[in-house]
Design goal:
It comes from Corallococcus soli. InterPro entries: CellSynth/LPSAsmb/PSIAsmb (IPR051012), TPR-like_helical_dom_sf (IPR011990), TPR_rpt (IPR019734). Keywords: Membrane, Repeat, TPR repeat, Transmembrane, Transmembrane helix. This is Tetratricopeptide repeat protein. By secondary structure, the chain is mainly alpha-helical. Among the domains are: 97 residues, Serine Threonine Protein Phosphatase 5, Tetratricopeptide repeat (Alpha Horseshoe), CATH 1.25.40; 70 residues, Alpha Horseshoe (Serine Threonine Protein Phosphatase 5, Tetratricopeptide repeat), CATH 1.25.40.10; 40 residues, no CATH class. 74% of the residues lie in helices and 0% in strands. It contains 18 helices and no strands. It is globular, with a radius of gyration of 30 Å. The N terminus is likely disordered.
Length: 323
């Protein structure tokens, strides 16, 4: 005869189930308490306020946590800069106040002046930008960061001449810096000063890998309409380093400018195989295929891109528009 449903076995099963549920609830409650404890502790430590603010996307909530740091004696200049960075985009006025307090607590920090310059730029306070960048240069005459920031701000406004002047100063401060040299040389080329650009790239010999240097020189020739010289230089680059994806990509562009679609496609596909995370090679190939009327090939190329990068589908369709 079967045991009734309310018998001892069933009661033991119920007890185990309730005990298990209580255990789960206790674990959940403990985890919740761990996350809530910082909210109930006396919050007088800047690190705690910054941590909570970083986890808070809403700018008004961030203001609640960060603005009081201005009067917190425990907050260092670095703490105040971090707080200002968190408010810079959404609340530049409050970020400005925090940065000024950081400057008061540590007047020698170049980082504070650079931050002030970025904030003042957001606030469209040109005189403040200039003052902060000038102070940064005075505090660290051999530091190129102020000039590089000035170049960034100038380029954003379309002032390429101003950006070039700033990059020239940065290049003088740190003449051996590869990133600064490449950026300066490219801007000189963009502003139609090929001889000066080539001089800058020549100064990077021994610091920039030979294949990369050949690519930069090839780009200068291409910008000047000297397509065959550009192709020759870029061919030398990919011969020097067959695995240099950027070299093959730029070679593909150079061949396209000369109207050699087959050579362009070969170089672009090689660039894509060498760097499968970069959409530029196949997106460029797709555009070339559309222009030359090879629509079936363009559809296949775009389909390959969409399958490989489903999260970038809208951007891919914008890059390669099919009729």
């Amino acid at each position: 005869m079967s045991e009734p449903s309310n018998g001892p076995a069933h009661q033991r099963h119920d007890r185990r189930w309730h005990q298990g549920m209580r255990g789960v609830l206790w674990v959940c409650a403990g985890a919740l308490a761990i996350h809530l404890i910082p909210l109930f502790l006396p919050r007088n430590m800047p690190e705690q306020e910054l941590a909570i603010a970083r986890a808070t996307p809403d700018i008004n909530s961030r203001l609640t946590f960060l603005v009081p740091l201005k009067t917190n004696d425990k907050a260092t200049a670095a703490d105040l800069r971090a707080a200002a960075e968190l408010l810079r985009e959404g609340a530049p006025a409050e970020a400005h106040d925090l940065a000024l307090e950081a400057e008061r607590r540590d007047p020698t920090a170049v980082e504070t002046q650079l931050l002030l310059a970025r904030i003042c730029d957001l606030e469209r306070m040109g005189r403040c930008v200039e003052q902060s960048l000038r102070k940064a240069n005075q505090l660290a005459p051999t530091d190129a960061r102020a000039d590089l920031l000035r170049a960034d701000l100038s380029e954003e406004k379309g002032d390429f001449a101003g950006a070039m002047e700033a990059l020239a100063r940065a290049h003088q401060r740190i003449p051996g810096d590869v990133q600064v040299g490449v950026r300066y040389g490219r801007l000189l080329s963009r502003l139609r000063q090929p001889d000066e650009a080539l001089k800058v790239f020549a100064s990077l010999e021994g610091r920039l890998p030979p294949a990369r240097l050949l690519v930069e020189r090839g780009l200068v020739f291409g910008k000047e309409g000297r397509g065959r010289e550009a192709v020759k230089m870029l061919q030398q680059a990919v011969q020097a380093d067959p695995m240099l994806a950027e070299g093959h990509f730029q070679l593909g562009l150079a061949w396209a400018q000369l109207g050699n679609d087959d050579a362009a496609e070969e170089a672009l596909r090689r660039a894509d195989r060498l760097n499968v995370t970069d959409t530029r090679a196949l997106a460029t190939l797709c555009t070339l295929q559309v222009k030359s009327g090879r629509l079936e090939g363009a559809r296949q190329t775009r389909s390959d891109l969409e399958r490989r990068f489903p999260q970038r589908m809208d951007a891919i369709r914008e890059q390669c528009r099919l009729p």
